[in-house]
Amino acid sequence: MFSTVTSGAVRGILSYLIEVEVDVSTGLPGFSMVGFMSGDVREAGDRVKVALKNIGVKIPASKITVNLSPADIRKEGIVIDLPMAIAILIAMGELEEKCVNDMVILGELGLDGEVKPVKGILPIVTKAKEMGIKTVLLPKDNAMEGAVVDNIRIIGVGSLQEAICYLAAPENERDSLIKPTTVNVREIFERDLGREEGLDFADINGQAAVKRAVEVAAAGFHHLLLVGPPGSGKSMVAKRIPSIMPKLSLEESLEVSTIYSVAGELKENQALITRRPFMSPHHSITETALTGGGNVPRPGVISLAHRGVLFLDEMAEFPRTKLDMLRQPMEDKFIHIARSRGTFSYPADFQLVGALNPCPCGYYPDRNKCKCTSNEIKRYLGHISGPILDRIDICVEAPRVDISDLSQKSRSLNESSKTIRQRVMAARKRQEERFRGTNLKFNSEMSPGDIQKYCPLGNIEQSYLESVFSKMELSARAYHKILRIARTIADLENSEKITRLHIMEAVSYRMTDGKYWSQREE
Fold it and tell me: Residues 389, 325: contact at Cβ < 8 Å?
């Protein structure tokens, strides 16, 4: 007898549906699986047979053939245990074929029949809804994740026996056996909107210029580099950047949650990612872990930082080859990985924040403390290539904190993250209104043509910028970068016009890279 059960899988970040076809016939007993699959997928056959035996289902001495369709996609790193077990039971006559009509079944089986969670539930359920599927039967631990997708029934099961009982029951009695899982997405967001981040800018004393630069970077989603000696608070500032960024919208949350679902990074019973991601990899991270890929393709750290912050602490300690891998995704907002088995694309729209010491010992240019030679400094800073530095909009110096900034009186003057975030959100709102009807979201995304349209300058401002361009010997990219930053500063000041003061502040954020990367032999 022949049967078909619909399941699903992910390839890269995209999902697709799989038809698990099973034929049980007379002949020489055997169990074979076909359909362009890897060895790890074939192992599912052994798990299914043992799981069925351990729940009391006796498989007859028959020839069983399992086919996974479509055959032109290589099945690698996917899980089809539960749908295969149900398809075998239908082919054996233990269940009726109509019990799986308009249903997608997902799940991994333990040898005792336990249904274990799988990766990629959110995109698969979304795909099932697009294809008109009415019900998804999946592991209980994945039920909250799947229920985020509205207008589709999510049934969570904990064991194979539970799944069989549900499918064997009349359709009008199923809800009394297992109640469909539902999630109030609005309630989740409202709950998290009222919860403040644990880290707050009020904890940071002094560093007014650094905090201002961070505010500008957050408002326009500009990449940021902090340079300063050890103990100046660079990491403290960077870790608090998510606390001044606007909360994720539902659309952004679904994007980020999909990536985390595919990567298997959603926590147990977690429905959505509702906070801005903050990823801080160690400099020893492998290239595959950073960008994504591997034998079974999965998103890397830069994709897990999508819509959030990618923080590279001690940035100069990262090998130059790894840093240069960020060049393309910083421009395209996607990371494209070509392998012999196909090409995969992962979202990578992150805000890069780097922190580094100005030399190996950390105290250059203070020659009372720094004993590094000029060549050592050049070699150390040389890990950050010119193209990467050119893509970083704001470069600011974090000086040593003065003792006066650590007093109780000084602490009372510190602004909270909530206060700063209100200004950032107001600036983001102005950008949203300005770019309505376009593909742009932030000032940092403006092309030279967009800059000409959205950043008009008066005669005084144009004359000043031309003199700066000539004196600093700026590149065309740096010229446009200054205007993007000036536009963001004007938005923070609620000014439709870019003034000379806005340009002066924007130019100041280009000084530090020239100071350290242009240092000469003393």
Answer: no
> Cβ neighbours of residue 322 under 8 Å, at least 6 residues apart?
285, 287, 290
N-to-C CA span, the chain? 85
In angstroms, rounded to a whole number, what is the distance separating the alpha carbons of residues 82 and 387? Answer: 49
User: Which has the higher per-residue pLDDT, 220 or 408?
Assistant: 220
* Angle in degrees, CA 424, 426, 431, rounded to 5: 95
What's the gap between Cα 196 and its chain centre? 21
For residues 324 and 380, what is the distance between their CA atoms, to the nearest angstrom?
15
Quick one: 145 exposed, middle or buried, by C-beta within 10 A (0-12, 13-18, 19+)?
buried
From CA 219, how far away is CA 491, in angstroms rounded?
8
Question: Residue 500 burial by CB count (10 A; 0-12/13-18/19+): exposed, middle or buried?
Answer: middle
Computed on alpha carbons and rounded to an integer, the radius of gyration of the chain in Å comes to 28
Cα 437 from chain centroid? 25
- Tally helices (H) and strands (E) across the chain: 24, 18
Note the pTM of the prediction, 2 decimals.
0.90
Report the distance separating Cα 9 and Cα 479, nearest Å: 46
User: Which distant-in-sequence residues (6+ apart) come within 8 Å of 41 by Cβ?
Assistant: 33, 68, 75, 76, 77, 78, 80
Q: How confident is the model at residue 411 (pLDDT cuts 50, 70, 90)?
A: low
pLDDT per position as a tens digit, 345-377: 899 999 999 999 999 999 988 888 898 998 999
CB atoms within 10 A of CB 109: 27
User: What are 331's two structure tokens?
Assistant: 């421009």
In angstroms, the CA 324 to CA 326 distance is: 5
Find the Cα–Cα–Cα–Cα dihedral 140, 141, 147, 149, rounded to 10°.
Answer: -120
Q: In which residue are the tokens 């003057």 written?
A: 413
Amino acid at 466: E
Please provide residue 416's backbone torsions phi and psi, each rounded to the nearest 5 degrees.
-85, 160
Q: What is the DSSP string of 427-485?
A: HHHHHHHHTTTSS--SGGG--HHHHHHH----HHHHHHHHHHHHHHT--HHHHHHHHHH
Say how many residues make up the chain.
522
Tens of pLDDT, residue by residue over 284-302, are 999 999 998 877 778 999 9
Measured between alpha carbons, how far is 371 from 516 in angstroms, rounded to an integer? 16
CB–CB of 335/352 below 8 Å?
no
What the block records as the tokens of 503 is: 């340009």
Calpha distance 301→304 (Å, rounded): 5
* Mean pLDDT, residues 412-431 taken together: 92
SS (H, E, C) 308-363: CEEEEECHHHCCHHHHHCCHHHHHHCEEEEEECCEEEEEECCCEEEEEECCCCCCC
Strands (DSSP E) along 118-251, which ranges? 135-139, 153-157, 224-227
What value does the mean pLDDT of the chain take?
91
* Amino acid symbol at 44: A
